[in-house]
Amino acid sequence: DETEFRNFIVWLEDQKIRHYKIEDRGNLRNIHSEDWPKSFEKYMKDVNCPFKIQERQETVDWLLGLAVRLEYGDNADKYKDSTPDGAKNADNTAKNAEPLINLDVNNPDFKAGVMALANLLQIQRHDDYLVMLKVSFTERLTQDAIAKASQSKEGLPVALEKHILGFDTGDAVINEAAQILRLLHIEELRELQTKINEAIVAVQAIIADPKTDHRLGKVGR
Which residues form a coiled coil (predicted)? Predict the structure, then answer.
């Protein structure tokens, strides 16, 4: 949006870059003027921006970088001991080993997700959504299922978008979960078919190679 873009440039100059004196910012602040592009082009030259006025994405990125450098220069003592967000997140992850520790059980999205999961797994509804979530994982995941899931399997990655579900639940997340469950079910059917085939082969081997007692008959008469 042109107006938003011009306001953004004025805000950067007024609040962070401050290349012009306050009394010299009038032309840049007059965002509704037809001559604003010329004022902006002059401003870019004055701050030594290496990009052209048509290269807006690059210009915005460069001006933001300039603003950050100036902001840091004005408040070096404040920022020099700052911890990167990535490191903070790593610390928080280590501290919050319990995945449900920061869960907002009153969040409407959480309630809707738990209700959808309970419907899929046919879990009886409960006033406490956290209880329903725990039941979904404790009652529906048997020890055999947990043991099987813990077994490491190597295979090719599957592109879910290439597999047609055949129905729509109205929720993209639930649709994806249903696709995964269907693929897992197909895998189990294939394993069962393989075992059946092995059993058939074993029976055929016994039938095709019977033990013969030659004393009971003659050959050729």
Answer: none
Contacts for 33 with CB less than 8 Å, ≥ 6 apart: 27, 39
* Site of tokens 């004196």: 21
Choose among 28, 13, 24: nearest CA to 66: 13
How do residues 122-161 score in pLDDT, each as one tens digit? 666 767 766 766 666 665 555 555 566 566 555 656 666 6
Most confidently modeled range among 54-68, 98-112, 180-194: 54-68
Asked if residue 28 lies in contact with residue 10, where contact means CB atoms within 8 angstroms, the answer is yes
- pLDDT > 70? residue 176: yes
Cα 179 versus chain centre, distance: 17
CA nearest neighbour of 167 among 175, 176, 159: 175
CB distance 24 to 39 below 8 Å: no
CB 63 within 8 A of CB 48: no
Tell me the C-alpha distance between 203 and 13, whole Å.
85
Of the candidates 176, 184, 186, 169, which has an alpha carbon nearest to the alpha carbon of residue 119? Answer: 169
Question: 3-state class of 133 per DSSP?
Answer: helix
